[in-house]
Specification:
Length: about 325
Amino acid sequence: MIKKFTGVAATAAMLIALTGCAGGGGSGAQGGEGGSEDIVVGFAQVGAESGWRTANTTDIKRAFEEAGIELKFSDAQQKQENQIKAIRSYIQQQVDVIAFSPVVESGWDTVLKEAKDAGIPVVLTDRAVDSEDESLYVSFLGSDFVLEGERAGEWVNTEFADADQVNIVELQGTTGAAPANDRAEGFRNVVTDPKFEVVASQTGDFTRAGGKQVMEAFLKSNPDIDLVYAHNDDMGLGAIEAIEAAGLVPGEDIKIVTVDAVKDGMQALVDGKINFIVECSPLLGDQLVEIVQKVVAGEDVEKRIVTEETTFTQEQAAEALPNRQY
Ligand code: AHR
């Protein structure tokens, strides 16, 4: 572990920054004092709620292993209090950098201040916090969730261009989570024609079981649903099960648009059960390693790094699926 802000290690970090011996290139393990092999990172993950999350965890562990950086990993099981506990434990262990993907947006200021006071830089990955004090974290790496919601909405506008009335049900992500808030907002930014009505909207907690359960209830209370907007593939896949159990054909009787583009979602898109997917990439590992190496070397990092993403029609999914990594 690299000792912070003191004597020899600080000088070594400075030398690394000046000579470019470590960090910045994502080039793997570096030898010697202050190299990647001396860095210890604490990562507090949300949980294992979705295919996206599993792929994200796998990618992060792979990237840190390849870089020769020690990674302390914890799974918060979608509970903020567990994440706060994990962060406090990383502070106590004096790790070099803390990275985490916040379960929800609010309520982080106290623990982030504790990390700052201990001199431990924090990197946000995947999800944002709503803290007004941006000095509480050094960088935020992840998707533009508002844009994802807008992309889903743009497809809806085109798909239902000739319809008179469109009844939409929305399967929201975890209440209070940035992707749930932002995907709801983005969708509403562009789906503005009064012919569109969100007749029901409820959280399915980003899980397949949650999506199925909520969709079953939606189908009971809403006889005429035209479209499901699911904030992730897993909830969309759960909705497919509920729609089929109700004797309807997903993708035909009820259209479905989701976010993520994990393999199971892409397969359902190819099979015609989902109609459109907005990509949200979980492959953040290499970029996170690069940020960590730069931060430890005392180099500047960008405050906001937005992940590049695309969208998939059924035809595009058929082409992309064989080479899909996750
Ligand atoms: O924060 C990213 C979101 O979290 C993904 O879209 C979802 O699948 C995951 O659970």
